[in-house]
Amino acid sequence: MSLRSPLGRALGLGAAGNGTQHWWQQRVTAVALALLGAWFAICIVGADLADRAALTAWIARPLNATLLLLLVLTAAWHSLLGSRVVVEDYVKGAIKVPLLLTLQFVHAIAAVVGVVAVLQIAIGGT
Amino acid sequence: MTAGNRPLSPHLQIYRPQITSVLSISHRISGIVLTAGLLLLVYWLAALAAGDTAYAAALAVLGAWPVKLLLFLGSFAFFYHFANGLRHLWWDSGRGFEISEVNASGWVVLVAATLLTALVWAVLLLGGGS
Q1: Residue of B32, B41, B48 lying closest to A86 (CB–CB)
Q2: Residue B130: pLDDT over 60
Q3: pTM of the full structure
Q4: Integer angstrom CA distances of residue A78 from A32, A66, A81, A87, B16
Q5: Reported ipTM
């Protein structure tokens, strides 16, 4: 049981019931992605994409593995927030909710596949 | 909702496209393109983890010309969303809202995205990479 008054619980939440949470998460992930995205773009441009051994050795370094995991997770989160809004704004009718569910699942799967792949390269010794 | 005989305010198809409105919808479109880019990143990582054969197959797919063209457009979407995202963060700080400033920052974003895309592909193609 909450000791907060009904008014205290409702203040700041607005019509959507979650206040500024979505907006703020989009901004926090945006700042993180500006840094992680710049790092990744610079590394990719400088890398030899045909050399798998060199690439996996690079990913296996703890700092790179850490930043890559952060990149995959942050990008998936930011992408889910953004694509949700696009669907909510433009899609009407019966396919709206199935489409939102699909977005959720696709992003969850993408995040997990990406994390497993990085971990496998980093500590699985492929 | 039916409009009936109520007067309607002009909507998108009435207004002349302006740099503000075009860049605004482009931010959303490039965001959707980058959602596909996220899936591509994950595919690339999974192929790297899966072994030499799987990675060679992935490289063959990514190196094909139609895919390369998509990658080129995708890289522009990345740099556009990147630069315009910084523009949005700048707005979030409460600055840059004068019409002249909004127009100027819009052009800065377009030029920056174009230059960064050109730079990356110049390095990729001239560097002898795949």
Answers
A1: B32
A2: no
A3: 0.89
A4: 10, 18, 5, 14, 31
A5: 0.89
